[in-house]
Amino acid sequence: MNETPSPDSCRSDVELQIERIIVASLEQATVNVRCLRGPVRRGARFNRLSGSAQPLDLTMTEALVYRHRVPALDTGLTAFVTLRGKGVQHLVSGTLAAEGQIIQGTNPRP
Fold first, then answer.
1. How far apart are CA 2 and CA 95, in angstroms?
2. Torsion angle (degrees, nearest 10) of CA 27, 28, 29, 34
3. How far apart (Å, rounded) are the C-alpha atoms in residues 28 and 46?
4. Which residues pair with residue 31 across a beta bridge?
């Protein structure tokens, strides 16, 4: 019997490594990241933080590469991104977290 995959199971996994926190408030942070697994599209939701069981529900609302807004980050790119949602307080700059924390999530549906 063939099962049809659910829409959630078809969504791609994405990863960003936190290099440096530029500005943070309770529900928003602008961070310098490196894309480890992409492309990461605007609207991507992150719910896992490396080495932590803390709850996370962050959405990437903006990405800047060389001061230009981009709709997605390809693997290997470094960028400034804005993350909004719950769990911002658990993010730590790379200098304090060895090589930097990794946040994992999924892209929005196309």
1. 48
2. 100
3. 13
4. 21, 81
